[in-house]
Design a protein that fits this description.
Number of strands: 18
Strand order of the largest sheet: 15-12-14-13-17-18-16
Shape: globular
Largest sheet: 7 strands, antiparallel
Strand content: 15-25%
Helix content: 25-40%
Structural class: alpha+beta
Bound molecules: flavin-adenine dinucleotide
Oligomer: single chain
Number of helices: 15
Amino acid sequence: MLNFHPNVTQPSQAALERALLLLHRALGPSKVLSARESCEVYSHDDSEAEGRMPDAVVLASSAEDIATTLRIAEETAVPVTPRGGGTGRVGGAVPSAGGIVLSTLGMKQVKEIDRRELLAVVEPGLVLADLHAAVEAEGLFYPPDANSLLACAIGGNVATNARGPRAFKYGVTRNYVLGVEATLIGGRSFFAGRRTTKGVTGYDVTSLLVGSEGTLAVFGDITLRLIAKPESVMTLMALFPNIQASCRAVESIIVMGLVPRCIELLDHGTLEAVRRAGNALNAQAGAMLLMEVDGPGLEVERQAARVGELCDEAGALEVLVAQDAGQRDRLWAARREMSPAVRRMAKHKLSEDVVVPRGKIAELLLRVARTGERLQLRNVTYGHAGDGNLHVNFLWDDESEVPRVEQGIEQLFRDVVELRGTLSGEHGVGLMKAPYLHLEQSETLIELQRGLKNVFDPHQLLNPGKIFSADRSHGAC
Ligand SMILES: Cc1cc2nc3c(=O)[nH]c(=O)nc-3n(C[C@H](O)[C@H](O)[C@H](O)COP(=O)(O)OP(=O)(O)OC[C@H]3O[C@@H](n4cnc5c(N)ncnc54)[C@H](O)[C@@H]3O)c2cc1C
């Protein structure tokens, strides 16, 4: 929900002053920002979420800095919002009550890459693209590949259980997190997880922490599972006259038992944005699939040929197979450029990331088009078709359009739940989706999760106001 302000307790002025004094004393002025102009950038992320200006920003450079900050926060009753690259799409890193922003982006070390055990230990501020480069230099592979990989950090990825195009074949961040050093509000630290691939001792606290959106603990070192780098990769682009034909192709690829590592879908409006960004595309094309297959050399060629044939059979206008690494990179650069290209189409953009069963993608897009017509709302959709994960982007220029955007969001979520999907495939709930959680989850399930939150953070000081909307009067219906 745009302009959602959860009902959270603001710290008192005296508490803030004391916290700032203690932080300065413990960490020194170079690690603590408090000037308004320095704090401003930490008051938002890559969403339309509106928070409060933080009163202090801690630039942590070690696990001790994280523990010290969380100790002082509890002692002074000042809320803390953990932050990585700030690329989140739901306001997860946006402070809803001011207080302290705890940035772990400065902690960027690759501490260990173990080729025998197939694991890496890294600090939370390591940028995803740098993690990829480091492990690939060792002939290994870390599959999760959020499209924000040049700016998002692994700590943020773990906190949001990030996923990307390759999730269709390889799964999501959670599938690669073996263990996490975590620090609780108050400063107590523990290691959850292990360094082995198997292990079932106790509750699976590691899995609970993955995707907890900075509300349970702050992550330090993260132990990641790696796999062998695929021998070869081929990229294909197929253009279709309409969405229905592209969905037919996705269905038959999967039914035939082929497992491309990604199947990305772009709708008519998105192709228009790509054209406007200077890419010449077949004028008849109303949908595009961008796909990759990987594995041993000959097997990859066989799979790519079969995928191409199935696209032809589904009615593709043309199928292009990237002939070299340069062409492949250009296709992916166009995919990654898509989000900024869409952003340039209007003053405001809100990117939802809903998921429906794959067989319902065309139905959902039809419903989105109907909602757009009814409410006179511009929208474009792209996403990870292999997972049924669609980014429906609402676009608007004028504040007077906001009530219609709100109606469009709510209608989208109701349609998704009706089609037995889920409100978020990768961005999480954060601030923006908190008012809608009850559309998908029962009161009992929400209460159970609130109970867990209370165990980790009884005074609601760690990233308050996120995931669970405290005040049901903010609910969307
Ligand atoms: C252009 C673009 C493309 C994107 N594509 C994808 C995509 O393909 N797949 C995808 O999943 N997402 C995508 N995203 C969304 C975003 O990049 C991911 O959610 C990402 O995981 C956020 O990482 P970050 O480091 O920027 O985290 P932030 O935005 O800084 O924070 C996100 C959440 O993590 C918490 N957090 C951060 N660091 C820590 C820590 N050390 N300990 C505990 N909690 C922490 C924060 O409190 C917050 O709740 C995209 C965003 C953009 C702008």
